[in-house]
Amino acid sequence: MNVKELSAKEIARLDKLAENQYLLNDPDKPKGAREMKLGSAIQTLQNNKKVVLDAVYDFDSQGGAQGQILLGLTLPTGAIVTAMYTRTLDVLASGGAATVAIKAGASTLKAATAFNDASYVGLQEQSLSGPVLIASESRLEVEVAVADLTAGKIRIMVEYLKA
């Protein structure tokens, strides 16, 4: 087995690695490099991780009476909702002019919209007015108003950044 004595330069390099230093190539500098604490970079990625809540509203198991229908999932305090998608699995139906809203506590993610609106057909990206900050832990819910729903099943996917 060959044993090699390390130079002072190699020892210094290993010390930097041991201190969780990471060299990133900087395209703005031909031979330059930018140092960044690896630990803090990983922490930043973990802290700002995107999460997707995947819930289903199903008339057959949850009913369609006017009011709030909880979907069994919660958005944490400080979550920043960045996108929302719906996929209609069974067409919504109503004997009247039912409206459906999607909320997280006091935050409205999708305003009350007619049950038979095109935004509840197939796979849709639901428009947000911008990122939505969830001020306190909030349960994801569907809110039915005006008239009861009599059928339907919708998958709701809410994408957010963890605070």
Run of helices and strands: HEEHEHEEEEEEEE
Mean pLDDT over the full residue set: 80
Portion of residues within helices: 10-25%
Number of domains: 2
Q: Per CATH, which architecture of the largest domain?
A: Sandwich
Q: How many whole angstroms does the radius of gyration measure?
A: 25 Å
* Most strands sheet: 5 strands, antiparallel
Shape: elongated
Describe this structure in words.
The protein has 3 helices and 11 strands. The chain folds into 2 domains: about 10-45, no CATH class; about 50-160, Jelly Rolls (Sandwich), CATH 2.60.120. Strands 3, 5, 8, 9 and 11 form a 5-stranded antiparallel beta sheet that branches. The termini are far apart. Helices cover about 15% and strands about 50% of the residues. The longest helix has 11 residues, at about 10-20. It is of the alpha+beta class and about 160 residues long. It has helices at about 10-20, 40-45, 60, and strands at about 20-25, 35, 50-60, 65-75, 80-95, 100-105, 105-115, 125, 130-135, 140-145, 150-160.
List the helices and strands and how they pair.
Layout (H helix, E strand, L loop, with lengths): L7 H11 L2 E5 L7 E5 H10 L2 E9 H4 L4 E9 L4 E15 L4 E6 L2 E8 L8 E4 L5 E2 L4 E8 L3 E13 L2
Antiparallel strand pairs: 1-2, 3-11, 4-10, 5-8, 5-9, 5-11, 6-7, 6-10
Properties at a glance:
single chain, 163 residues, alpha+beta, Jelly Rolls, 2 domains, five-stranded antiparallel beta sheet, 3 helices, 15% helix, elongated
